Known about the structure:
Structural class: alpha+beta
Helix content: 10-25%
Shape: globular
Radius of gyration: 16 Å
Distance between the termini: 26 Å
Largest sheet: 4 strands, mixed
Order of helices and strands: HHEEEEHHHHHEE
Number of domains: 1
Amino acid sequence: xxxxxxxxxxxxxxxxxxxxxxxxxxxxxxxxxxxxxxxxxxxxxxxxxxxxxxxxxxxxxxxxxxxxxxxxxxxxxxxxxxxxxxxxxxxxxxxxxxxxxxxxxxxxxxxxxxxxxxxxxxxxxxxxxxxxxxxxxxxxxxxxxxxxxxxxxxxxx
Length: 157
């Protein structure tokens, strides 16, 4: 078993409870990510209802094993359509984010879930809680876009 990845104690002050999203520095903003990987899944949006469905089909840069982007810093060089979520883009993108996403929850003035790494001190709790998609994706390189609807998954809350 791999050693647990710990969250820096510098976040012990629970900044997310006192600072508005637009006031966060880049390190604080990135720390909000729980590492579930769901934002890296391809989605299908129903044109009539606007409802967004997650699929098991992950971006070509996503690592199913680590549940992380293989080239996060340069992802837009390889995947131009990858959305860079920021305090200024959250409003237009919150609708497609998973219901457990810290960015979406805080934007909606809700609390972080008890398994969130900022609360537990461990990046592994998102996986142990069964929230992440670690070990359950297939690469978009291996599935035709016409077949994506066959890979829709139900979101765990």
